[in-house]
């Protein structure tokens, strides 16, 4: 709690202001783009952008590649499994297992996490549309979020490593 003992004026510095502004602008842009594209769950674009914006450009590129690959693999698996088996618990579990093996075989590393999340979203949330449409929407929503996050990170870069404005400051005692 040592960070809380400092005056608020020293915690609210230019870095926090710029980072908060960049993140807010990127979040709103991704939401507008996703809505303009008519995506039914535009908030996924915004959530993805918020995650991407917490990094420097180099880190954002690495995270984006993993999110993009994981979303693509998970959406494809979710569409296939949902089309042929519906929302089946055993098939879902086998799908998560298969995604782990696929991501390992393709050396996708951290993409497995995003692939599994995407599989769950496509397979487990009740929808009125075909699984392929849901999977395609999910993929485009995340892709919009990645594109906006990377674009804003490139045109409005951070000079310092990004630390969340709300993050506690470690004691130097």
Describe it:
By secondary structure, the protein is mostly helical. The chain has one domain (2-155). It has eight helices and no strands. The chain has helices spanning 2-5, 8-11, 14-36, 43-52, 57-85, 89-105, 111-124, 131-155. Helix 4 (43-52) packs parallel to helix 8, helix 5 crosses helix 6 and helix 7 crosses helix 8 (131-155). It is elongated and about 55 Å long.
Distance between the termini: 13 Å
Please estimate the helix content.
over 70%
SSE order in H/E notation? HHHHHHHH
Determine the structural class based on helices, strands and strand pairing. mainly alpha
How many strands in all?
Answer: 0
Q: Which regions contain 5 or more consecutive residues with pLDDT less than 50?
A: 168-173
Q: Indicate the multimeric state.
A: single chain
As a whole number of angstroms, the C-alpha radius of gyration is 19 Å
Instruction: Report the biggest beta sheet as strand number plus sense, adding barrel if it closes.
Output: none
Tell me, briefly, the overall form. elongated
> What's the rounded overall pLDDT mean?
86
Count of alpha/pi helices: 8
In total, the number of domains comes to 1
Strand percent estimate: under 5%
Task: Please outline the helices and strands.
Layout: H1 2-5, H2 8-11, H3 14-36, H4 43-52, H5 57-85, H6 89-105, H7 111-124, H8 131-155
Helix pairs in contact: 3-4, 3-8, 4-8, 5-6, 5-7, 5-8, 6-7, 7-8
């Amino acid at each position: 709690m040592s960070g809380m003992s400092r005056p608020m004026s020293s915690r609210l510095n230019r870095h926090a202001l710029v980072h908060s502004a960049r993140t807010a602008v990127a979040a709103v842009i991704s939401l507008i783009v996703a809505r303009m594209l008519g995506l039914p769950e535009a908030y996924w674009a915004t959530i993805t952008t918020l995650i991407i914006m917490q990094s420097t450009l180099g880190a954002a590129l690495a995270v984006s590649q993993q999110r993009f690959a994981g979303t693509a693999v998970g959406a494809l698996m979710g569409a296939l499994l949902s089309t042929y088996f519906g929302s089946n618990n055993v098939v879902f579990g086998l799908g998560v297992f298969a995604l782990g093996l696929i991501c390992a075989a393709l050396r996708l590393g951290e993409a497995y996490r995003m692939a599994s999340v995407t599989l769950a979203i496509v397979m487990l949330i009740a929808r009125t549309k075909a699984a392929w449409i849901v999977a395609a929407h999910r993929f485009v929503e995340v892709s919009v979020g990645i594109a906006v996050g990377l674009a804003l990170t490139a045109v409005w870069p951070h000079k310092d490593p990004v630390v969340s404005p709300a993050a506690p400051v470690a004691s130097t005692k």
